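Student: Send me a single protein entry containing the residue sequence and its fold in token form, directly below this note:

Tutor:
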Amino acid sequence: MEERKKTLLIVDDDIFLVDIMAFTLKQSGFEIIKAHNGQEAIDIINKEHIDLVLTDIMMPVMDGFELAENLRKNDTTKNIPIIFLTAKSNVEDKNKGFNIGINDYVVKP
């Protein structure tokens, strides 16, 4: 029996960056779904099985903090790993993310 590919949801309003990450991660064997804001991500997560969310913080409509809060409050999604990938490097934002319950925080170069 063939093992199911892990599905990653990439959430960022920078379409170019999303495409680069998607290409790279697909090459590593992941199934990739893209969203461009937190609300799109919520809509996708309600329909698809997602193994990990890789999200920016600063986005229109719903930012990464609100997305993470929504996922952590929902019994169905509370255990999905969340990684923030963001340009925000200050300690306050990192602490806020970890207090919400994200799994990791990576600062974009």
